Amino acid sequence: MTVKTTTHILGYPRFGSQRELKLAQEKYWRGEISQAELKEVGSLLRHRHWGEQSGAGLDVVTVGDFAWYDHVLGTSMLLGHLPKRHRSGFPDLDTLFRVARGKAPTGCACAASDMTKWFNTNYHYIVPEFSADDEFNVSWPQLFEEIAEAKQAGHKVKPVLLGPVSYLWLGKEKEQGFDRLSLLPRLLAAYQQILTKLANLGIDWVQIDEPVLALELPKKWRNSFKIAYQVLHGAPKLLLTTYFDSITHHLDMITGLKVDGLHVDVSAAPEQLEEVVQHLPEGWVLSAGVVNGRNVWRADLSALLERLQPIKALLGDRLWLASSCSLLHSPMDLDLETELKPEVRQWLAFAKQKCRELTLLAQAMDGNEIAIEECARYSAPIKARATSTLVNNEQVRQRSEAITDALAERKLPYQERARIQRQSLGLPLLPTTTIGSFPQTNEIRTQRRDFKAGRLNEQAYVNAMQGHIDDAIERQNKLGLDVLVHGEAERNDMVEYFAEQLEGFAATRFGWVQSYGSRCVKPAVIVSDIYRAKPMTVSWAHYAQSLTEKPVKGMLTGPVTILGWTFPREDLSREAIANQIALALRDEVADLQEKGIKIIQIDEPAIREGMPLKASQWQAYLDWAVKAFKISAASAEPKTQIHTHMCYSEFNDMIESVAALDADVITIETSRSDMELLKAFEAFDYPNEIGPGVYDIHSPNIPTVEQIVELVEKAEAKIPAKRLWINPDCGLKTRSWEETEAALTNLVEAAKLLRQQY
Ligand code: GLN
Ligand code: ZN
């Protein structure tokens, strides 16, 4: 007789398929609904989401994944551990919002905590702040209340907790000379209290997330696991949960821990499964994360069935099936996507469908004949996709295969290009420019929306956009900027625009994924081989250039960024996809140049964040990422100046690769770091030109001439003036024209003063 296979997920999206939580939160922040009404929306969504999990047939529902802003901040609240400046009175929901956003409907305004990326996803968490005298007092009852709520609704509950070592790792010290790991004993006492409470609530298993196990950890951090789980061992049982990459490099240590089970991500690192099975300690449960929690593809259930059968034979009921990671990173419900082409739709599965995949697979594993057949039927489209002509384009493949190292190289080295460009462009010392986008006014947004909805015909739309270009060029000329931009009025988003223009992408209607707080993004899906059927930006750039004598920059988004901010296909490597995009962009660069565009910017803000989790894999990634960028840029003749732009990035450990991009000019976000980020460029003797941002576009403050002069002087101490540009930190699309013009007036004025100085 076969034993029943247990199924669960690591977490569910929080927002609701219509982004109900986002809308309610924002209304609450604006004072339009009460806290009670906001809480009501949260409760409604939790019930709906638990209902969907048990409706799909999962054995337990996951509780503790719901968060009002972010689950790391939720953990800080649970632990009674908030930044010092926010510790007044008993913490409530407004305390949480104040830590996240600096303000809330009640209480004082106080600096928000930092936010940073959650591993290699596009989700951002609130960074815990640690000081030597920090204490942890389990106070915030949200988790316990939600468990009671789910139980009352008749669900079998498995709570999730962010584990203590990961919690410490993800935070940062607020004081010098203190090591946050020294707080572990105190922190563990609080976790013990939480676990005891959970045991008293009748909880059998707890999912304790330690995603840092996917990283290559320093020794003391690695060793801290032993102490931590020695202390936490007992009732309830602990499922040590890892995701986003393999953990076999820590397997010796992990198998020595006092836990009751292990979850591994079989989707991100398929090859680790067999090794983990082989070393699984006696009595441990193995939760196999087989359904990808962070992409949109239908699982090949028959293939999984075949692969997992022998493991089931070995482990029996100790094998559980799960999503690879929390479904937080997956859109909510494919059923809503009525406008996707049917052939594309049958390749996809969103959070709700992924739950059903798990239970179907489990039934098949348990020998249910109907389920086995259903698995085969369900997997047929995704299997057929492998050879579908809809997906695989022979020409694209051939062109990709023909890529050589030489294809990625410009015809002349930078020094010679620079000489030619200096002559042909005739720019002054310290040229002034902007990063690309200008204010996206309501008028612009409405016109784009009307065009999409068919309320505005193509000619009227083109006229409207050209009107915005006229306006942008006129303003820039008046301001006296040296290198102009067309302003990007036609772009809602720097990736979405190209996803719509290129072949190979599909857009969803409701495929929202939480990025941070109430912010969601709706990445396009790369469904097939990518190519450019027609020029994408040439007519806008050409029109803008026709209006002025000054050079107008062509404006493209780079291959690594387009890849990084979409759902990639899984049957091709990221490198291969990036190369396809690069070839398409390469043709765009050639066309822009042909139409008289002398400067082309290829934005790559996502290069840094695409770094693999394991430091030992960084270089291999950077090598192909750099090459993809260079392939797109290298159709430029020596006289065409290639710019790139990166937002706030840690450049120290990748400066060599930044230099290897061989962009003639790079603009970076530096004003908030007071030009400190230029140290990496100075130390490396970075050879090409740099435009370190001289004012923070995220702030409404207008930089003064003196402030800009001072920043450029700091930059000049590190990089010679003849290789410096003057520009803002990033695009100006979120600012108003009033702020933009005031800031740029000062920027141009500062450049004039500085030119007399050097
Ligand atoms: N060209 C883009 C803009 O100005 C760059 C945006 C970015 O770096 N995120 O909006
Ligand atoms: Zn930027």
Automatic annotation (TrEMBL):
The keyword Zinc applies. Pathway: Amino-acid biosynthesis; L-methionine biosynthesis via de novo pathway; L-methionine from L-homocysteine (MetE route): step 1/1. Residues 7-313 form the Cobalamin-independent methionine synthase MetE N-terminal domain. Residues 430-752 form the Cobalamin-independent methionine synthase MetE C-terminal/archaeal domain. GO terms for biological process: methylation. The active site is at residue 698. L-methionine binds at residues 435-437, 488, 603. InterPro entries: Cbl-indep_Met_Synth_N (IPR013215), Cobalamin-indep_Met_synthase (IPR006276), Met_Synth_C/arc (IPR002629), UROD/MetE-like_sf (IPR038071). This is 5-methyltetrahydropteroyltriglutamate--homocysteine methyltransferase.
